[in-house]
Every structure is written in C-alpha cells, then in structure tokens.
Amino acid sequence: MLKLVANFKTSEGRSQTWSFDNPTTTKSSTEIEDLLDRLSNVKLFEKDGALLFNTVDGANYVETTETEIFKKKA
C-alpha cells in the first residue's frame, strides 16, 4: 500500500503527522507542497489550544508490503 505521509509543526512547535492512503503520484513536489500549505492555512484542527497543522515541514511517499504468513480457514 502506498501512502502520502506529511509532517507538520503545531503552533507550539511539536511534530504532527498526517497521512493519505493511495495518493495520486502524478503531482510534482511543488504541487504537493502547495496543497499541504493550503491545508495548514485552513486552521481547522486544534487540540488543547494548539493548531495541529500550523506549518508543513515535509512529505514522503511510504510504501508498505504486506506478506501473509498464514490464514485460518473458517
């Protein structure tokens, strides 16, 4: 499975992570950064008085491989 994992800083300077499953990979890094900046500008997400996605810090594509070890029959 492929995920877009974005790292943000809260208004208190702490790290905050957000991920999106199965992203389109055709956008450039500049387009992705612009979209994540727009998300940080909305200022919708707050916890204990701190804005959770205050500034975008970076983003990565993360791919995980799932390997079945066993599966019990019903």
From TrEMBL:
Pfam families: DUF2922. InterPro entries: DUF2922 (IPR021321). This is DUF2922 family protein.
